[in-house]
Amino acid sequence: MKFTNTAIHQLEHLYSTGVNTVQTEMDYRNGISQLETAARAGHGKAAMFLSQLYYQGFRVERDSLKAQYWQDLACQEA
Asked: Which InterPro entries does this entry report, sorted A to Z (predicted)?
């Protein structure tokens, strides 16, 4: 998938905001929503981050199926 520089910048910003929201602000619902949006738009790091959250059960219910889904999506984007 090809992205313009603006789209890449917007996805990076959404990803970093989502990570910050989860790790610093501890607003898990909004942070995960931001990460899911970025991952579905093709941001592989966001998908891998979500995969790890679900695999480890970090502030979300541990869910191996969701972890695998996000990992598979990340691999498609690589």
From this structure: TPR-like_helical_dom_sf
Residue at token pair 């090809």: 2
Where exactly are the structural domains of the chain? 5-77
Measured CA to CA in angstroms, residue 65 lies from 5, 50, 54, 60, 72 at distances of: 33, 12, 9, 13, 10
Question: Cα(3)–Cα(42) distance, rounded to whole angstroms?
Answer: 9
pLDDT tens string 4-62: 889 899 999 999 999 999 999 999 999 999 999 999 999 999 999 999 999 999 888 99
- Cα–Cα distance between 44 and 58 in angstroms, integer? 19
Residue given tokens 């996000």 in the structure block: 70
This prediction's pTM = 0.89
**Helical residues (DSSP H) of the chain, grouped into ranges:** 5-23, 28-40, 44-56, 64-77
